[in-house]
Amino acid sequence: MTACDGDYNIFEHPQAYNTNPIIDIMSAASRSKKSMKDVSSKPGSSSASRSRVEKRKANTLAARRYRQNRLDMITELESVLKATQQERDALKVQLAALQGENQVLKDLVGRPPWGRDRETS
Questions:
Q1: CA distance linking residue 38 with residue 32, whole number of Å
Q2: How far is residue 102's CA from residue 83's CA, in Å, rounded to a whole number?
Q3: CA dist., res. 28 & res. 2, Å (int)
Q4: CA dist., res. 36 & res. 44, Å (int)
Q5: Which run of H or of E encompasses 31?
Q6: How far apart are CA 92 and CA 16, in angstroms?
Q7: What angle do CA 61, 64, 70 make, to 5 degrees?
Q8: Alpha-carbon distance 36 to 3, whole Å?
Q9: pLDDT higher than threshold 80 for residue 2
Q10: Tens digit of each residue's pLDDT (9 = 90 or more) over 4-56
């Protein structure tokens, strides 16, 4: 039984289980190489090899689609970010103008209607 089999159980083979992920990857790779050797030595391995080649091609295409989708998503997010930054900058300008107008209005309201001359006399 190999790691590629669906029935592989770590409790049946505790020595194959390791908590170090690097060792796990290395041991899984060596088990998969062994299973590949076993398949290629069997009669009728050309169909298994063909199937493996087809899976490899499908995986390559899937990886290519994933990378393209990731690039598209990054491009879209960058454009959304740029638009949001432009909107933020416009809002900052609008806020500054409104704060200036607000200050002018506060100054007008705070000033007595008769002017400063009457207040001092």
A1: 10
A2: 28
A3: 9
A4: 14
A5: helix 21-41
A6: 61
A7: 140
A8: 12
A9: no
A10: 555 555 555 555 445 555 555 555 555 555 555 554 555 556 788 889 999 99
